[in-house]
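User: Here's a structure from my thesis project, written as structure tokens. My advisor, Dr. K., wants to see whether a designed sequence matches the one we expressed. Can you design one independently, without my sequence as a hint?
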């Protein structure tokens, strides 16, 4: 299969995943928003709750901000410098090269965004339960937390990592980690240092993926337990605190992973493919 065909396959996979994720996300937000808005308490902060679900407090989390070459991303300086030198060796300016699999980047940014949304949602319900409200209305709508966690962990993240491990990771290893793939782009043809550096980067990204998946499993279990009718109020507080903390950790865990991809992998693929 030629490069053009492989790129077409990648694009199709990500387009299908993004369309499905968008539709699922809209349904999730609409359902959760409707549940909160139906509260009979006149002092219920409907607008604030909907903002939490829609990410209204941090709408720029899907932008390119936060990418920095100085971030502690688990990669040694020699490996990073080897790749940066490789990127600098191309004569044309960076803007002349195009990364064609934009769905990969969009999906990743949506996962970081939704992790932060889930953190805000858990904080919202935690504040309702610990804020002095009493009776059945305390934490009304909390059942939506499991639905939101399921979307973030078992749909958005699971779908993204399934494509990454089943397709994109192989694509990267074929085009960046083999000497015959990047040899034509290196002066003198001695590409051992470059291929070794790219292998370390791709391996590090995969380690972050495994850690994120493990974190996500615990996160979903806590969210599911928090919405169990038999869970006491005190237990709910503990579990909601866990969901808040784990959602934040998930977003933080994904940040250095995205950092490596945006600074080192995306520019490299745009040059050699």
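Assistant: Designed independently from the structure alone:
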């Amino acid at each position: 299969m030629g490069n053009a065909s492989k790129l077409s396959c990648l694009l199709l996979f990500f387009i299908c995943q993004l369309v499905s994720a968008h539709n699922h996300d809209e349904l999730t937000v609409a359902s959760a928003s409707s549940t909160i808005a139906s509260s009979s308490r006149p002092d219920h902060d409907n607008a604030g709750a909907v903002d939490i679900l829609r990410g209204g407090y941090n709408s720029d989390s899907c932008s390119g901000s936060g990418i920095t070459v100085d971030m502690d991303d688990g990669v040694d300086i020699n490996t990073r410098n080897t790749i940066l030198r490789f990127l600098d060796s191309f004569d044309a300016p960076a803007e002349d090269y195009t990364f064609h699999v934009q769905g990969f980047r969009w999906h990743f940014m949506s996962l970081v965004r939704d992790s932060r949304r889930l953190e805000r949602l858990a904080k919202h319900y935690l504040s309702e339960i610990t804020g002095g409200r009493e009776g059945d209305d305390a934490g009304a709508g909390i059942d939506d937390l499991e639905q939101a966690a399921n979307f973030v962990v078992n749909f958005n993240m699971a779908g993204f990592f399934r494509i990454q491990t089943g397709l994109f990771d192989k694509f990267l290893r074929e085009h960046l980690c083999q000497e015959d793939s990047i040899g034509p782009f290196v002066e003198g043809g001695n590409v051992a240092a470059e291929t070794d550096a790219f292998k370390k980067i791709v391996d590090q990204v995969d380690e972050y993926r495994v850690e994120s998946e493990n974190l996500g499993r615990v996160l979903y279990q806590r969210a599911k337990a928090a919405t169990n009718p038999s869970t006491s109020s005190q237990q709910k507080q503990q579990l909601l605190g866990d969901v808040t903390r784990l959602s934040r950790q998930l977003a933080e865990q994904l940040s250095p992973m995205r950092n490596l991809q945006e600074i080192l992998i995306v520019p490299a693929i745009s040059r050699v493919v």
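When you compare it with your expressed construct, this may help: Helices lie at 3-37, 46-54, 77-88, 102-130, 143-176, 179-182, 192-226, 233-272.
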